[in-house]
Write a structure and sequence with these properties.
The complex is a heterodimer of chains A (372) and B (102). With 372 residues, chain A is mainly alpha-helical. Chain A has eight helices and no strands. In chain A, helix 3 packs antiparallel against helix 6 (251-299) and helix 4 (118-196) runs antiparallel to helix 6 (251-299). Chain B is built from four helices and five strands, in the order E-E-H-H-E-E-H-E-H. Classes of the chains: A mainly alpha (372), B alpha/beta (102).
Chain lengths: 372, 102
């Protein structure tokens, strides 16, 4: 309620209404229907300023003013105590957020702008290493398979050698049979030569030589058979070795390759995810800094609120002084409500001259802080 | 299942392709070796290996497939691998036989 309106109502009471003695002004205004009755220009029902009730009414108003002033001062005290602490907290938060943002920015710069970039280098290097290892495994598996192919070639050649050795063995058996038959023939020839007597002596010598040759042939055949048997044994061992060498299970190797390929895929995803998260954290940090800055800026309006409260206090002082002076005014010159209202306004204007200028700013604009 | 033309030969690979497969493969390899391997009838041969039942291949079996590939002049028109299980495809690719997959 403005002071001018207050005085208009007060003039109505002075000039036409019974004044309250015990209740507060506000309670009286609520309870008494006559209090809201419009004032008439003739001043019917008016009472004199010198009446004792009017002095009481002024005292009651002065008491109300004192209560309001007390509350205003308590509000000022609370604001004066709370706002600086809140401001300090926001300043600290702002400072920490700035530090955090700087640390993150520095980290990002170090990771990304380093020559070579650490993050990209690390992930790229690991990715390259994994890809290279995977490729090497693949190449190694290919080499093993090619080696197996060659081993199978060797194995088939050895099998052919074994077949040839078996044929040699058959041939040696044939040679031995011939030697045996030759030996029998020579033996029969010797018997026939002995039956002929001296005439067969030369034939006897030939038969003996043939028998010797058959024996020698048999010995050579046996040597060949032994050598062939030995070669066959070696061929069998070579076959076993080549079969073992040719036959390898590559599933473990290929499983490793598959695993490496998966690791590579995950590394790529992780790389992207980390970069996104870092950018998000940086954005959040920046936003928190901005919001904290906004909050700190808002707290600067504590000055305005304090000055408004000072002004209200000054108004209340002016009101109290006005009431004081009205109660001491000679009532002879005040006969109508209009006179009383004019007197109130005149005194109030005088009291207000010393009052401070009220700041006009009513909204918290971010960049328009009106200082006074 | 792929339809095989009358001039082609179908080899059914065993369930486990191992060294023992050589007994079946060797005669075919032999038939593709020597002077007669270059005559026209040999050059028109198409050999298809059906791997419908095969669940594993060791390097010996892969080596024999590579020998078949060599004997058939590395020609996809003459050598084919059909019904290969997905698990064996990477093995076939590593062996360099992917171009024969059908």
């Amino acid at each position: 309620m403005g002071l001018a309106l207050t005085f208009a109502l007060a003039a109505g009471y002075f000039c036409g209404c019974p004044l309250p003695h015990h209740n507060s002004v506000s309670e009286t205004l609520k309870a008494d229907p006559i209090a809201t009755k419009p004032l008439d220009s003739k001043g019917e029902g008016q009472s004199s300023l010198s009446e004792p009730g009017n002095s009481l009414w002024c005292a009651s108003l002065a008491s109300e003013v004192a209560d309001v002033r007390s509350n205003v001062n308590r509000s000022k005290g609370l604001i004066a105590n709370g706002i600086p602490e809140l401001s300090n907290s926001f300043d600290a938060i702002n400072s920490m957020v700035q530090d955090q943002r700087l640390a993150l920015t520095s980290l990002l710069n170090n990771l990304i702008n380093a020559k070579p970039p650490i993050v990209e280098f690390s992930f790229r290097k690991i990715n390259e290493d994994v890809a290279s290892t995977s490729q090497n495994l693949s190449g190694f598996a290919g080499l093993v398979i090619q080696s197996s192919k060659l081993n199978m070639d060797v194995h088939f050649e050895i099998e052919d050698v074994a077949t040839d050795l078996a044929r040699i063995n058959d041939l040696v058996n044939g040679v031995e049979w011939i030697a045996k038959q030759t030996h029998l023939l020579a033996l029969n020839a010797s018997i026939e030569a002995a039956q002929v007597g001296a005439a067969g002596r030369g034939f006897q010598v030939v038969a003996t030589e043939i028998r010797n040759l058959a024996h020698r042939s048999k010995q050579i055949s046996e040597s060949i058979r032994d050598s062939a048997a030995s070669a066959n044994a070696r061929v069998l061992r070579a076959q076993a070795a080549s079969s073992k060498s040719a036959s390898q299970d590559l599933s473990v190797l290929l499983d490793s390759k598959t695993h490496l390929d998966k690791v590579r895929g995950r590394m790529k995803m992780l790389d992207q995810e980390i970069m996104l998260l870092m950018a998000e954290v940086s954005y959040i940090s920046t936003t928190i800094g901005q919001k904290t800055g906004d909050a700190v800026r808002c707290l600067q309006f504590e000055d305005i609120v304090r000055q408004i409260l000072d002004h209200i206090d000054a108004d209340l002082v002016a009101l109290a002084n006005t009431l004081q002076r009205i109660s001491q005014t000679d009532p002879s010159g005040v006969s109508a409500p209009a006179d009383l209202l004019s007197l109130c306004q005149s005194i109030l204007a005088e009291e207000r001259q010393a009052a401070p200028h009220l700041p006009s700013q009513s909204e918290l604009a971010a960049s328009e802080l009106e200082l006074f | 299942m792929e339809t095989i033309s009358q001039t082609s030969e179908l080899i059914e690979a065993p369930q486990n392709g191992t060294f023992e497969w050589r007994h079946a493969i060797r005669p075919i390899l032999r038939s593709l070796e020597g002077p007669e391997a270059n005559n026209n009838s040999q050059n028109s041969r198409l050999i298809t290996v059906d791997m419908k039942q095969t669940v594993s291949l060791d390097t010996a079996a892969l080596g024999m497939l590579l020998q078949l590939e060599d004997r058939l002049k590395q020609d996809p028109q003459r050598f084919r691998l059909i019904n290969v299980h997905p698990e064996l495809r990477s093995l076939i690719e590593v062996a360099g036989l992917a171009k024969y997959l059908r």
